[in-house]
Amino acid sequence: MSKGLTLARAFYRAGHRVIGADFEPYYVPVSGHFSKSIEKFFRLEKPSQKTGSAGYIQDLVSVIKKEGVELWVSCSGVASAVEDGEAAELVEKETGCKAVQYGPTLTETLHEKHSFIEHTKKLGLNVPTTRLVTSETEALTEKYIMKPVGMDDTLRADMTLLPLPTIKETEAHVRRMNPTPFRPFVLQQFISGPEYCTHTLVINGEIKCFVACPSSDLLMHYIALPTNSALSQAMYAYTVEYTQKTTPKMTGHFSLDFLVPGPIARNAEQTFGASDEEIQGLMKHLYPIECNPRAHTAVVLFSDESEDLADAYVEYLPDHEPKGISTTHSDPHELIVPAPSIPGYYWINHDIVSLLLFPILRLLRGEIGITEVVERWTTFVEH
Fold this sequence. Notes:
By secondary structure, the chain is an alpha+beta fold. The chain has twelve helices and 15 strands.
C-alpha cells in the first residue's frame, strides 16, 4: 500500500535498515516488494474467517525474530486492523521489538463505529447522534445515514440519506442492508457539509505528526489543509484532547474522519490566526463519524519530511537510537506537519479513468457537453 511504501522510504532516507512484509494474494507482488528502500521482503499469511489470525501473527513474529527487528510499524488496511492489535501484544511479549500499534482492546474500540462514538462521548467530546441497529424494525424519525459497524466492502460507500420519500422505499433499503445482532449497523445523524480526514502519529500519548485534508469519495486525492487554518487547528485540538484523555497512553496511528456543517467549514478553511477561544468554539461543530486506528494514506503528504518522521518513530525505542543510527530531529517535541509547498497527491490510474475516459463515455451517451469534458481534461493536466 502507498502508506507502507511512504514510511519505508522515510526510514530508508533516514539511514535505517527496512524489512517489508505484506499479504500477496494469489502471489501477485505488491509494489513495495521491489522497492530499493526495502532490504528484504516477506510474504505473510492473510487472516481470514476460516483460518483466523494465528498464522499471520506467527509469520510476523518469525520475521521479527529472524531479522532482529527493533521497531514494528503497522500499516494495516481496514480488513486487518484488529488482527494487528492482537499481533502487537504478542510481538512485544515474545520479542524485544517495540510495536507502533495499539493493543487489541483499544484497537477494536476505535475500529468499530458504535464503540468509537460511545468512547468519544465518554471523553466529553462532540459526537453526532448515533444509535446501534440490529433489526429491520428499528428506525429514527430524523434524517440519518445507515452504516455497518464492522467491515463490509459492499456497503462502505453507501451514504443513502434515510428515510427515503416513502415508507416502502425505506423498508426495502433497510431490508437490503439486512441488519442483525451478528451484523449490526449504526444510524448516524446526518450532517450537511464536507468530510475531512486526518492522519496522526502518537507516541506515548504525545502527538508527533498531524495533517488534515478534505476527503474524496474514493480517497484518491490528498491535498493538505493549511496547518494555520482555523479548521486544521480545531481538528488538531480535538485530536490532542482525545489522546490526552485516553488511557493508557496511546502509541500508534490515529486517524479521524470528520463531518463539518457546510457554511462553518468554508469559513474555517479561510480563517487564519484564530484565537484559542475561537478554536474551542469551532470544535463544537466537528462531528467525528469514524476512526481508523491505523496509518492513513494521507501520510504520503509527509514525503518531504522523511528524516524527521522517521526520527519521531525511533523515539519509541528505549534508547531512542537504533544500532548505528543517530537521530537528527532538532526538537523531539516539535509537531511535524507537511511543508507548506507540498503538492497534492493524485493516483494516475484513477484519474485516467475518471477524468479522461469516463467523460468521453458520458459525452457519447449525451449526458454531458464538450465543455465539461474539456474541464475534466484540464483538471487531469493540473494533477
